[in-house]
Structures
1.
Amino acid sequence: MPQIEGHRVIQALRAWSQVPIIVLSTRSDADDKVAVLDAGADDYVTKPFAMKELLARLRAVLRRRSTEEPSRLVAHIGEWTIDLNSSTVRRAGGDGDRLRLTPTEWSILEMLLRHPPGELVTSQHILRHVWGPGNENKTHYLRIYFASLRRKLEPDPASPRHLLTERAWATASNRDRRPGRSRAPPARPRVDFQVPVGARGMSGSRADGDVFCS
């Protein structure tokens, strides 16, 4: 991959998914193989290869996966346990009261929890994922829905610890600030969201952490 090392892609994918991964590569160095296998790949095939060998390796991976118990994708935010498999939010301990979220609230929360803990997720990305292309500028949607999620999930919605907002400043590049060049427009605030950072991680597939929105 020209922009990012393959083992980093695998690490990011393994943060939320246990989908089988077979790496096809021209690299035959042992260190490269060890890096991707340690990152979470199931197998490594060096090019060139025979198609019947690849198909046999695919069948072997699928056989191993079919005998494993499905991983339970669970995260914790404060007193709440979020189960992504069953799409439920319940109070941890006690009688396990179920918290009801609207479909849109669930879509936002699930999307954040499938990112690595602490990662900033832009408002444009959330809007495009939940509402679809063409809605990237409707940031008032997020103000409404994040206020509702905080009321439901945060012990103190006025001082959130898990569903956090980061304010950044978007500005044009200053590489052409030479005489005769037009000046860049003034910086404007941009609100992004961070994947919850206090959320204790998904069992079996996530590291501990909180979710933030950027």
2.
Amino acid sequence: MTTLHITLLSHGNRLGGIERELRETGNLVEVVDSAGTASLHAGLRATSILIVDCCGEAAPALARLESMLDGAPPVPVIAVCEEQTPGFLIEAMRVGVREVLTLPIGAGDLAGAIARVSRRSASLRAGQARVLAFASCKGGSGATFLACNLAHALANRPGVRVALFDLNTQSGDAYVYLAEGEPTHTLSDVLSGIHRLDPAFLGACLSRVAPGLSVLAAPGDPAAAVQSRAEHIGQLLALARREFDFLILDTGRSVDPLTIRALDEADRIYAVLQPSVPYVRGARHATALFQGLDYDMDKVGYIVNRCGSAGDFSLGDVEAALGRKIARAIPNHYEAVAASINQGVPIGTLAPRSPVSRALRDWSASLSDDQADGQPGWIARALGWRSGATQFRKAPARA
């Protein structure tokens, strides 16, 4: 069993029971009074997990935690509170909390929370990004929108580094979903300079569109990538896996050696469709392609976009027609999605209370918490993503 160095940040002896349980299981435990956090900043480098007492006045505790974590080495945080209110949970997630436990802590809850954050931390330390490929079952499915906005939602998670690669060499436009103007470099620049590929060269070709999120745009000239070989994509992804936590690949609809190599390399393929006959037919064709490529179908997740429109199939109808379970259902909210696309602003920024934004946050939480698709993360489980009136934030007008 791995010995963890766990720091308890508490006032008085409120976390005494947690301290005893941790010591009994062989962990190294350091208890620091919450009034003395200034001296803790440098010591976080040796800390495996930080457990914070947020009982009593939760807002000041979270403010102190945010200040302490600013500029400190990344460390997974578990918060302990007396009541999980929606406001507290949202603020806790914002400042970097990975798990929340409520007093009194149930049997097994502490061990479960520690196991989850330990798995996630081990994954980050291993330096191997999870590669998620988005494939459109039919034009207009919304695969690019979902790829871009899931990437943005993941990058909003504390300490998560995300790269989005637009591999649609014929008509890719993922960059404009997230930023204004034109990218300085594109995929064709990387592939034409594959002989000098290293972290510095890749970094120079990426466009940083938001904190934690970089984009490798599709070629402006479709002919520029024609001569690129599939093994070049393999080299690119092998390097990028070591530089990021998540790689999001937008593969478009074309089937060519580059696309197939990208799908081969992906840890998970998301086949995006809508709940109507043409899209279900497209999903069947995609399924036949995946089977023809000899993929394990557990690698493929079917994402139904724009659910809930009048006259559409139900999810049960789609599953029956495909003979496959649906991994995720994204609700329909045309107004917010159209505004996001037209302004080039991620929907989570433009319309944070849109049901689409909530679905993407839930999806990103389940991925970054290392849980199975379709299983909500702790914030989603606690809140149930309560619905509310959608509020739009005005974004700058595009040129």
3.
Amino acid sequence: MLPTPVKSVVMVLLTSMAMGFAPATYAKEAWFEVEVYLFSRNVNANDIQEALPEKAVVPNTSNSLNLKTEAGQAGVHNSNKAYLLAGNGQFSQYINSINRERGTAGLLHLTWRQNMQSRPSSTPIHLFGGRDFTSQYDLMGNKVMAGGDLALDTLTVQDSAQDGPQVQSGAVITAGNGQVINQAEVLPMGIAPQLQPNVWQLDGNLLIYLDHFLYIETNLVLRVEGEKINLQEAVHSFSNQDASVMETSSANPLAFSGSVSGNNAPSAVPSPYLYAVPMKQNRRVRSNELHYFDNPRFGMLIQIRKLN
């Protein structure tokens, strides 16, 4: 059941949706103002039926638009690209209502303008914010090794259409100058760090396009700290232990008797792990209405306002 403040926002949405849909007609250039607010929920895992994903699936943001770094200075419209707006937008009432609910925390609040086009011609917007876990976890969700290097196991990179390439096991991510990325940068929400990739709490793509109707397509992940049993690591530890025992027994047969069992068996000890909880949805919407995208662990409010 939704919390009361969030429920009040949803009631506003249901009332507006009851009006139905009608195809919209737009000029060749169809500029809209978009406002989005994302927030997380601190929920008990036992209260959620959906299991946490075992494999880290990361949205491919390499071809996405970073509103701050790629669209010029905030509030300046100097191209056909989407551009960021300064100010607090029009969501203050809804944000205050959501924030009154215990356990919710804001992740990102942005307002921008963009020229809506067909899906093939549209560029996804890269959304990211919340905590920066770069100094603690790699993109696979594993704890960063001693020394801060980001050693990756096989990582699935995914965009909104299909699975992307995989990073080969054992790769170490470095910056363009060869420097190993081993330090988190504390930056305002929505501002890209100089070194990539950063492991943000919220990360992914938001694609808005026009096909007679307006459509919103989300491919986002929320990273959640937890624990995970690494069976491969347990087997590796057991193999090393077995080899050490056998070496000792060969050098001094009286020092060891019996087999590797009981207390010597591999132990599956949970390790800290950063889960990536997905929100992948595609929805037809109407302009000027408030829309709510929901996930048990995080939510998104969005409004697309037509400009005269």
